[in-house]
Amino acid sequence: MTQSADSLTTILAAGIKATASMHDFCCDLSHPGSPSATVVMLRRTADTLDWLVLADSVLVLDVLDADPMVICDEREALTGNRYRDPMNAAAGRSSEHLQALSRYMEAMRAHRNVDGGFWVAAVDPLAAEQALTGTMPVDRVRAVAVLSDGASRLVDRFGLATWRQLLDLLDHDGPAELIRQVREAERSDPNGSRWPRGKIFDDATAVYGRIT
Protein backbone atom coordinates (compact mmCIF):
# COMPACT_ATOMS: atom_id res chain seq x y z
CA MET A 1 0.00 0.00 0.00
CA THR A 2 1.31 3.45 -0.90
CA GLN A 3 1.40 5.86 2.02
CA SER A 4 -0.69 8.98 1.48
CA ALA A 5 1.20 12.20 0.95
CA ASP A 6 -1.78 14.23 2.17
CA SER A 7 -1.49 16.08 5.44
CA LEU A 8 -2.75 14.28 8.53
CA THR A 9 -5.40 16.99 8.83
CA THR A 10 -6.68 16.19 5.34
CA ILE A 11 -6.67 12.45 6.06
CA LEU A 12 -8.61 12.95 9.31
CA ALA A 13 -11.17 15.20 7.60
CA ALA A 14 -11.75 12.56 4.94
CA GLY A 15 -12.17 9.89 7.61
CA ILE A 16 -14.73 11.96 9.53
CA LYS A 17 -16.66 12.67 6.34
CA ALA A 18 -16.65 9.01 5.27
CA THR A 19 -17.76 7.78 8.69
CA ALA A 20 -20.57 10.34 8.93
CA SER A 21 -21.81 9.41 5.44
CA MET A 22 -22.28 5.80 6.58
CA HIS A 23 -24.82 6.99 9.19
CA ASP A 24 -26.41 9.91 7.35
CA PHE A 25 -29.69 8.11 6.56
CA CYS A 26 -30.14 6.16 9.78
CA CYS A 27 -28.95 8.50 12.56
CA ASP A 28 -29.70 12.03 13.69
CA LEU A 29 -26.26 13.51 13.10
CA SER A 30 -27.45 16.94 14.20
CA HIS A 31 -28.05 15.73 17.76
CA PRO A 32 -25.57 17.39 20.18
CA GLY A 33 -24.93 14.03 21.79
CA SER A 34 -23.85 12.30 18.58
CA PRO A 35 -20.90 9.95 19.14
CA SER A 36 -17.50 11.56 18.97
CA ALA A 37 -13.90 10.55 19.46
CA THR A 38 -10.50 11.80 20.43
CA VAL A 39 -7.80 11.24 17.81
CA VAL A 40 -4.05 10.68 17.79
CA MET A 41 -2.33 10.06 14.46
CA LEU A 42 1.32 9.27 13.75
CA ARG A 43 3.07 8.86 10.43
CA ARG A 44 6.68 7.92 9.91
CA THR A 45 8.44 8.81 6.69
CA ALA A 46 12.08 8.26 5.82
CA ASP A 47 13.13 11.42 7.65
CA THR A 48 10.24 12.65 9.81
CA LEU A 49 7.65 11.67 12.36
CA ASP A 50 4.40 13.55 11.75
CA TRP A 51 1.77 13.77 14.47
CA LEU A 52 -1.77 14.99 15.04
CA VAL A 53 -3.71 15.26 18.31
CA LEU A 54 -7.37 16.21 18.65
CA ALA A 55 -9.24 16.33 21.97
CA ASP A 56 -8.18 14.79 25.25
CA SER A 57 -5.75 11.99 24.41
CA VAL A 58 -2.04 12.50 25.08
CA LEU A 59 0.96 11.86 22.83
CA VAL A 60 4.36 11.59 24.53
CA LEU A 61 7.53 11.58 22.46
CA ASP A 62 10.67 10.16 24.04
CA VAL A 63 13.13 12.63 22.55
CA LEU A 64 16.85 11.92 22.51
CA ASP A 65 18.92 14.14 24.82
CA ALA A 66 15.86 16.10 25.98
CA ASP A 67 12.88 15.92 28.28
CA PRO A 68 9.84 14.02 26.97
CA MET A 69 7.71 16.08 24.59
CA VAL A 70 4.07 15.96 25.71
CA ILE A 71 1.38 16.95 23.21
CA CYS A 72 -2.10 17.35 24.67
CA ASP A 73 -5.05 19.38 23.42
CA GLU A 74 -6.03 21.19 26.62
CA ARG A 75 -9.10 23.01 25.32
CA GLU A 76 -11.58 20.48 26.71
CA ALA A 77 -9.96 20.58 30.16
CA LEU A 78 -9.85 24.38 30.16
CA THR A 79 -13.52 24.54 29.17
CA GLY A 80 -14.44 21.95 31.81
CA ASN A 81 -12.71 23.90 34.56
CA ARG A 82 -15.59 26.39 34.41
CA TYR A 83 -18.10 23.74 35.45
CA ARG A 84 -16.19 21.23 37.60
CA ASP A 85 -16.56 22.74 41.08
CA PRO A 86 -20.04 21.34 41.94
CA MET A 87 -19.04 17.91 40.64
CA ASN A 88 -15.73 17.91 42.51
CA ALA A 89 -17.40 18.98 45.74
CA ALA A 90 -19.73 15.96 45.82
CA ALA A 91 -18.70 12.47 46.86
CA GLY A 92 -17.74 10.26 43.92
CA ARG A 93 -20.71 7.85 43.96
CA SER A 94 -23.35 9.93 45.69
CA SER A 95 -26.59 11.03 44.06
CA GLU A 96 -25.34 14.62 44.32
CA HIS A 97 -22.23 13.72 42.34
CA LEU A 98 -24.23 11.93 39.65
CA GLN A 99 -26.56 14.91 39.30
CA ALA A 100 -23.61 17.30 39.13
CA LEU A 101 -21.92 15.05 36.56
CA SER A 102 -25.06 15.11 34.40
CA ARG A 103 -25.19 18.91 34.55
CA TYR A 104 -21.48 19.07 33.74
CA MET A 105 -21.86 16.87 30.67
CA GLU A 106 -24.82 18.90 29.45
CA ALA A 107 -22.84 22.12 29.82
CA MET A 108 -19.89 20.64 27.95
CA ARG A 109 -22.06 19.65 25.00
CA ALA A 110 -22.81 23.32 24.39
CA HIS A 111 -19.09 23.97 23.91
CA ARG A 112 -18.30 21.00 21.69
CA ASN A 113 -17.04 21.84 18.20
CA VAL A 114 -17.68 25.57 18.50
CA ASP A 115 -15.28 28.51 18.52
CA GLY A 116 -14.13 29.24 22.04
CA GLY A 117 -14.88 25.68 23.14
CA PHE A 118 -13.17 22.39 22.29
CA TRP A 119 -13.02 20.13 19.26
CA VAL A 120 -13.54 16.40 18.75
CA ALA A 121 -13.97 14.09 15.78
CA ALA A 122 -17.73 13.79 15.33
CA VAL A 123 -19.66 14.59 12.13
CA ASP A 124 -18.06 17.84 10.91
CA PRO A 125 -14.88 17.34 8.86
CA LEU A 126 -13.87 20.93 9.66
CA ALA A 127 -13.02 19.78 13.19
CA ALA A 128 -9.86 18.25 11.72
CA GLU A 129 -8.54 21.73 11.02
CA GLN A 130 -8.56 22.40 14.76
CA ALA A 131 -6.18 19.55 15.58
CA LEU A 132 -2.71 20.11 16.95
CA THR A 133 -0.09 19.00 14.43
CA GLY A 134 3.67 18.88 14.14
CA THR A 135 6.70 17.18 12.68
CA MET A 136 9.99 16.06 14.19
CA PRO A 137 13.09 14.46 12.64
CA VAL A 138 12.58 10.75 13.15
CA ASP A 139 16.17 10.22 14.28
CA ARG A 140 15.50 12.42 17.33
CA VAL A 141 12.69 10.21 18.69
CA ARG A 142 13.49 7.07 20.67
CA ALA A 143 9.89 5.95 21.32
CA VAL A 144 6.28 7.17 21.42
CA ALA A 145 3.41 6.65 23.83
CA VAL A 146 -0.25 7.22 22.95
CA LEU A 147 -2.51 7.51 25.99
CA SER A 148 -6.19 8.02 26.61
CA ASP A 149 -6.84 10.53 29.39
CA GLY A 150 -7.76 7.60 31.61
CA ALA A 151 -4.22 6.23 31.25
CA SER A 152 -2.39 9.56 31.41
CA ARG A 153 -4.06 10.40 34.74
CA LEU A 154 -1.28 8.57 36.59
CA VAL A 155 0.81 11.65 35.74
CA ASP A 156 -1.45 14.57 34.91
CA ARG A 157 -4.17 14.05 37.51
CA PHE A 158 -2.76 11.80 40.24
CA GLY A 159 0.81 13.08 40.12
CA LEU A 160 2.16 9.63 40.98
CA ALA A 161 4.78 9.64 38.21
CA THR A 162 6.58 12.01 35.89
CA TRP A 163 6.37 11.70 32.12
CA ARG A 164 9.92 10.33 32.17
CA GLN A 165 8.93 7.69 34.69
CA LEU A 166 5.84 6.80 32.67
CA LEU A 167 7.93 6.25 29.53
CA ASP A 168 10.40 4.10 31.47
CA LEU A 169 7.52 2.09 32.93
CA LEU A 170 6.08 1.44 29.48
CA ASP A 171 9.49 0.51 28.11
CA HIS A 172 10.30 -1.92 30.92
CA ASP A 173 6.89 -3.36 31.85
CA GLY A 174 4.46 -2.47 29.08
CA PRO A 175 1.00 -0.84 28.98
CA ALA A 176 -0.62 -3.45 31.22
CA GLU A 177 1.50 -2.37 34.17
CA LEU A 178 0.70 1.29 33.59
CA ILE A 179 -3.01 0.53 33.60
CA ARG A 180 -2.63 -1.66 36.69
CA GLN A 181 -1.07 1.25 38.56
CA VAL A 182 -3.82 3.59 37.38
CA ARG A 183 -6.49 1.17 38.63
CA GLU A 184 -4.69 0.74 41.94
CA ALA A 185 -4.68 4.52 42.44
CA GLU A 186 -8.36 4.78 41.50
CA ARG A 187 -9.32 2.03 43.94
CA SER A 188 -7.37 3.76 46.71
CA ASP A 189 -9.60 6.85 46.32
CA PRO A 190 -13.11 5.45 45.69
CA ASN A 191 -14.93 8.68 46.54
CA GLY A 192 -12.65 11.09 44.71
CA SER A 193 -11.66 12.88 47.90
CA ARG A 194 -7.92 12.85 47.17
CA TRP A 195 -8.23 13.36 43.43
CA PRO A 196 -11.58 14.98 42.52
CA ARG A 197 -12.70 13.65 39.14
CA GLY A 198 -15.84 13.07 37.12
CA LYS A 199 -15.21 9.36 36.60
CA ILE A 200 -13.82 7.36 39.50
CA PHE A 201 -12.68 4.71 36.98
CA ASP A 202 -12.00 6.03 33.48
CA ASP A 203 -11.41 4.14 30.24
CA ALA A 204 -7.65 3.54 30.04
CA THR A 205 -5.81 2.75 26.81
CA ALA A 206 -2.05 2.92 26.26
CA VAL A 207 0.07 2.14 23.22
CA TYR A 208 3.87 2.21 23.28
CA GLY A 209 6.24 1.86 20.37
CA ARG A 210 10.00 2.13 19.90
CA ILE A 211 11.29 3.98 16.85
CA THR A 212 13.93 1.86 15.11
Structure description:
With 212 residues, this protein is of the alpha+beta class. The chain has a single domain (8-210), classed as Phosphatase 2c, domain 1 (4-Layer Sandwich), CATH 3.60.40. Helix content is 34%, strand content 19%. The protein is built from seven helices and seven strands, in the order αββββαααββαααβ. It has a four-stranded antiparallel β-sheet. Helix 6 (163-173) crosses helix 7. The longest helix is centred in the middle third of the chain and has 15 residues, at 95-109. It is flat, with a radius of gyration of 18 Å.
Quick description:
The protein is an alpha+beta fold and 212 residues long. It is 34% helix and 19% strand.
List keywords for this structure.
212 residues; alpha+beta; Phosphatase 2c, domain 1; four-stranded antiparallel beta sheet; three-stranded antiparallel beta sheet; 7 helices; 7 strands; flat
